């Protein structure tokens, strides 16, 4: 039996005995200070308890020998460090997710987000868009970009929130086609500008010529994801209309193209400007193709101005907002919607919260789920929600309405492609609407074949600028990376013709070497080794990066283009002077990341892309085979004509026939046998001389004289549209 230890007496300090003789005044002071002392004692007690808990934890964790395990943190210390993370703070640290992973791409992403917002605003307001894009270099690695539109403008209280708060917008919760979706892009661009240069985002917006414009200088408070207004004492500045306002604009140094209404955003950021593939120039070039109803004024850092005139004077139809389709709802979302719905029966809930669900269909779903149609939503639990979910999947429901999406259309696709891309054969195909995860979408494909290669449209001045701006180390890398569709074989042939070394540095070429390179680029035939150039679009927005990860590229490489007259290696892109454009229009585009550069590989989407590619491929194959037949018959006629004179002379010597008459008859026979060499086609692909032998390419095909069209488009893409209008 265990023995109890004797209780030891504790010694009392002398200071403790003296406290008993304290005067009355001191006791009064103590009573006044008692609350504070009690609070301090409580805090000390709590701290002592935490310390004791930590000591107990450490004792529990300690090994039998009494040695410490070297533990550096406890549950209490870790809990004290945990806090909320602002979405602005997250993306400021992970800006590569939004497309700001390098200076060159940052410049493109900023302009892309501003232009997309301008187009959406103009189209929603029913205004034919006119957009001004200006890039100005302010120092070695800094650029100031300004994007202005003639849209409806923005009301005063919304300006700071739109440009100074991430995940703020009107498009995320509605199901209708739009370029922007998440409310991140332009505010993230402004945040990147503030981070890299310290300069605020400048916005001026006007909703009417008779009302004042509103001017703000903003930066994002990343800790709270809130806008911080820096001018006008935190309230912004109002610019009066008329002459007084013009003086205020000059006083504040505001950049503004005088318009009765619209918005301009100016952002200074750390960036890099380059031409060629993946550049701002290419983005605007492709935007003009997919949006033929816009007028675009572009001023590059060198002060050169380029105007893209609109090819269509009619806005695309306005897409309508729809309710979610029940096939696209997951179990967790359905349960949340049931919990949020108040005062509704199941039948009312299904028929009012989803598209294509009538009261009869709702009753059928309830019967399948073995749930009363009159049951109230608030009384349903998780088992009933799961039964409803499975019943929805088992019930046949009509696909969602397609008036929520707005395709470009075959006619406008051809106009846009013809205006900007040189070629001799154009065709387009629009697939019927389809559905993935309950979301309607539509695929469009357009194709341009032939025309001069990109290397043949370069002059001496432009080549010098491209060589100066390039990051490529060698001439070979410069040619492949700068000119779309140029393969390694074609680059080698150009370098051989120019007598340049394979490891020669691009930026160190002498003037004579640059001249030799220019002559080789314009004279060497690169069409044979040219790779198909792919232009990818989602809701009329060009996608320029992450090409290999995109469902569009993967579907193109998996399609057999050899049956359409193009050469193709297994698993590779087809070869030939071909531009192909693929556009997906959808209420919700399944991008692979927040930077919105690649489309996810849904089987339904890839199937529709493949069918669209096959539709234009069949028309291309008909044209290529006919052109090949013309060439073969022309070569055959040349052989005949080379020997007919000698044949006529030999026959005349043998039987005394008239040599000239015999030669004429042989020429007529040769021409009749090789009649396809004289075949000429009109702009619909039909044979001009003999209408009875027409080849029907179907609708939406353009065939042109490649020489004249290439000359019209060579340096000014808008010139072709002007000439066509005249």
User: What separation lies between the terminal Cα atoms?
Assistant: 117 Å
The radius of gyration over CA amounts to 36 Å
State the total count of DSSP E strands: 16
Question: What is the beta-strand fraction?
Answer: 5-15%
The SS-based structural class is alpha+beta
What is the overall number of helices?
23
Could you please describe the fold and organization of this structure?
About 40% of the residues lie in helices and about 15% in strands. With about 725 residues, the chain is of the alpha+beta class. The strands form two sheets. Strands 1, 2, 3, 4, 5, 6, 7, 8 and 9 form a nine-stranded mixed beta sheet that branches. Strands 10, 11, 12, 13, 14, 15 and 16 form a seven-stranded mixed beta sheet that branches. The longest helix has about 55 residues, at about 605-655.
What are the defining features of this structure?
single chain; 726 residues; alpha+beta; nine-stranded mixed β-sheet; seven-stranded mixed β-sheet; 14% strand; disordered N terminus; disordered C terminus
């Amino acid at each position: 039996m265990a023995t109890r230890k004797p209780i030891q007496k504790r010694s009392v300090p002398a200071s403790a005995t003296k406290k008993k003789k304290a005067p009355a005044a001191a006791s009064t002071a103590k009573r006044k200070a008692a609350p504070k002392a009690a609070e301090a004692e409580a805090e000390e007690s709590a701290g002592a308890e935490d310390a004791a808990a930590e000591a107990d934890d450490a004792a529990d964790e300690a090994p039998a020998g009494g040695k410490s395990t070297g533990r550096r943190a406890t549950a209490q210390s870790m809990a004290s460090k945990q806090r909320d993370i602002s979405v602005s703070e997250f993306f400021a640290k992970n800006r590569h997710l939004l497309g700001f992973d390098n200076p060159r791409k940052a410049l493109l992403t900023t302009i892309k987000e501003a232009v997309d917002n301008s187009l959406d605003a103009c189209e929603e307001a029913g205004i034919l868009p006119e957009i001004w894009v200006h890039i100005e270099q302010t120092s070695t690695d800094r650029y100031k970009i300004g994007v202005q539109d003639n849209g409806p403008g923005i009301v005063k209280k919304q300006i700071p929130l739109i440009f100074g708060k991430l995940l703020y917008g009107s498009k995320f919760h509605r199901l209708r086609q739009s370029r922007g979706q998440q409310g991140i892009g332009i505010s993230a661009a402004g945040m990147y500008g503030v981070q890299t240069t310290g300069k605020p985002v400048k916005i001026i917006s006007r909703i009417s010529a008779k009302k004042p414009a509103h001017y703000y200088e903003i930066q994002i408070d990343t800790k709270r994801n809130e806008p911080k207004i820096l001018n006008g004492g935190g309230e912004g500045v109002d610019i009066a209309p008329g002459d007084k306002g013009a003086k205020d604009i000059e006083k504040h140094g505001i950049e503004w193209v005088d318009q009765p209404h619209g918005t301009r955003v100016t952002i200074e950021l750390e960036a890099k400007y380059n031409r060629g593939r993946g550049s701002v120039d290419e983005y605007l070039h492709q935007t003009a193709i997919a949006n033929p109803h816009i007028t675009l004024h572009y001023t590059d850092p060198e002060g050169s101005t380029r105007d893209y005139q609109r090819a269509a004077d009619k806005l695309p139809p306005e897409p309508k907002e729809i309710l979610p389709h029940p096939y696209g709802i997951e179990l967790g979302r359905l349960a949340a919607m049931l919990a949020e719905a108040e005062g509704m029966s199941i039948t009312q809930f299904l028929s009012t919260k989803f598209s294509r669900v009538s009261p009869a269909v709702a009753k059928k779903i309830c019967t399948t789920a073995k749930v009363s149609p009159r049951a109230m939503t608030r009384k349903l639990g998780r088992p009933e929600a799961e039964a409803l979910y499975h019943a929805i999947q088992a019930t046949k429901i009509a696909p969602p309405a397609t008036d929520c999406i707005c395709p470009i259309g075959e006619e406008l696709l051809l106009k846009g492609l013809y205006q900007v891309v040189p070629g001799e054969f154009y065709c387009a195909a629009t697939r019927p609407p389809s559905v993935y995860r309950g979301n309607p979408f539509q695929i469009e494909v357009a194709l341009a074949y032939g025309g001069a290669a990109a290397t043949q449209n370069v002059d001496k001045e432009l080549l010098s600028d491209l060589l100066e701006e390039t990051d490529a180390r060698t001439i070979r890398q410069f040619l492949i990376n700068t000119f779309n569709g140029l393969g390694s074989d074609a680059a080698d042939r150009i370098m051989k013709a120019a007598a340049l070394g394979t490891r020669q540095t691009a930026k160190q070429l002498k003037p004579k070497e640059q001249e030799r390179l220019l002559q080789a680029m314009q004279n060497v035939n690169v069409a044979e080794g040219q790779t198909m150039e792919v232009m990818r679009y989602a809701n009329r927005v060009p996608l320029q990066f992450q090409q290999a990860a995109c469902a569009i590229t993967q579907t193109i490489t998996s399609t057999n283009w050899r049956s359409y007259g193009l050469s193709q290696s297994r698993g590779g892109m087809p070869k030939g002077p071909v531009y192909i454009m693929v556009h997906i229009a959808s209420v919700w585009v399944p991008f692979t990341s927040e930077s919105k550069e690649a489309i996810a590989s849904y089987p339904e989407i890839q199937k529709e892309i493949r069918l669209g590619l096959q539709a234009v491929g069949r028309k291309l194959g008909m044209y290529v085979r006919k052109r090949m037949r013309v060439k073969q018959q022309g070569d055959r006629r040349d052989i005949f004509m080379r020997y007919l004179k000698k044949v006529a002379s030999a026959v005349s010597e043998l039987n005394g026939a008239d040599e000239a008459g015999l030669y004429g008859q042989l020429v007529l026979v040769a021409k009749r046998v090789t009649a396809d060499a004289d075949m000429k086609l009109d702009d619909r692909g039909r044979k001009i001389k003999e209408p009875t032998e027409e080849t029907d390419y179907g609708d939406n095909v353009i065939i042109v004289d490649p020489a004249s069209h290439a000359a019209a488009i060579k340096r000014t893409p808008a010139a072709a549209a002007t000439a066509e209008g005249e």
